[in-house]
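Let us begin with a simple case.
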Amino acid sequence: MTTTSTQHHDEDIAPELGELHLEDRPDGPGAAMMISAGLGIFVLGFLTVLAEASAGAKTWLQKWEWGQGVGALAGKTTLASLAYVVALIVLWVIWRAKDVNLKMAFYVGLALGILGAIGTYPTFFQKFAS
């Protein structure tokens, strides 16, 4: 991911934006959101497949339910949420004042999200049943 600390000029791409006199803000926080969201979805899909493939992993994920009666789902969603929050905090701190390649961040987040979503489809994760 290419990062720069210089200001970008959106009015060069879309001249009509120059008339609005918008404050120039860094792209890093937006890129952090896109990538961390994709990572959270990916972790959910990965844990779904892992719980199906490994009885030990499924048992470990069931311990995260705190008496709610939802089984391994609680562990999957809790860990996926933690992955999202940790990734967001780390990337936000690193990129909060920088301009990054938003297109690349979007595609990375999209790819992670698609892979994670595939992992949550029963026809996919049931192929890994032990």
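The second case is a distinct protein. As before, the sequence precedes its structure tokens.
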Amino acid sequence: TVETKESIMKRFYTCEQKVNETVEAYASRLEELFDKAVELGGLKRFETGILKSVLHSGLRKELKNMSIYQCDKIEEYDEFKRELRKIEADLKDKPSEEKKPCKPALTTER
């Protein structure tokens, strides 16, 4: 199957992290699409800022919200990806808070 520049660009810009996918796996998929886009002339190799933006915009909601500051602060793509992996590891290490049903307040009249 021959892919056109337009189809690769569309897949690149709409790429999103899957539910149980790690940041590393998602970034690898995105980087492959970026490489194909570069080969077909849709992007330039030095346009890693676009790669970083697309990486951030396709993250799962919780990870995206937790990494807004890093995305704004960090210029380099690889460094931003490392920070995402740290955030992801912190999320996995955090004990899950089980939701316990609330007990209604009881008043006893005597």
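The first helix runs from residue 5 to 13. The two ends are 81 Å apart (CA to CA).
Keep these points in mind for the review questions at the end of the chapter.
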